[in-house]
Amino acid sequence: MAVMRKGPWTEQEDLQLVCFVGLFGDRRWDFIAKVSGLNRTGKSCRLRWVNYLHPGLKRGRITPQEERLILELHSRWGNRWSRIARRLPGRTDNEIKNYWRTHTRKKAQERKKKAAAAAPVSPSSPSSSLTDNSGASLREPPAEEVAADGALELNCSVGCCSSSSDSSVTTAFGEIYDHSDAVFKGYSMDQLWNDISMPDMATGLSFEEFKDEASDIACPAMPSPLWDYCSYSLWKMDDEDFQA
DNA sequence: AAGAATTCCAACCGCGCACTA
DNA sequence: CTAGTGCGCGGTTGGAATTCT
Q1: pLDDT digits over A127-137, tens only?
Q2: Residue A102 beta carbon within 7 A of nucleic strand B
Q3: Full residue range of the structural domain in which residue A74 is found
């Protein structure tokens, strides 16, 4: 058994992953990991996709508005990062978590300094800073933050996969795309999956042949409805969250 | 200018939950 | 009912980039 690759992703790997997620959707990560030929675990693929390659991701720094929202939601839900992330379209739990970490650490340090300056002894609980959101005096973000609007930047850096043979590829996988589309018209994912894993169904190729074909082809541009679906589904509001 | 400190961010790990056979 | 499997979540780490001294 080959040893799984770890560490930073290469551009080539990104391309491959984007390609296969485009084909199979952002589920079944173990399957994608295997089929794509990426020597990565499904887990690793999912992480890379969710945190970096997803087309709906916003690039750039956390804006003051987002910062306020994070504070508010964290006071409500604590470290439920994924839940908080759902309230911030384009932001990932990882991003928010990272932000919060540096932010609170900084605040804790400031508080320590203040406490040390004001009083020689401070018996207050040390961990309270984590859930403390009284932070009205937050770090003033640099002006450039406001310009943070990198959504879909990915399409240029990675997602466009500008293949010279786009059209031929699209026809080769056209059926698959049609099936992806069907998911949104009432197909269940499982139905789709059955179709895909059945030899000779979608592409006329056996699965192994299809796999080879796919790994040979520079990824087509991804105009698939999957993109829309992904960017919608990942960030869509979750009604029950607001009821809490 | 250089080294130290801090911040940012990508990635990994372990755990728990949900689903399925 | 239970064991196996896959996925998602939260915590943590480590390196690159940036800022400070």
Answers
A1: 333 333 333 33
A2: yes
A3: 64-150
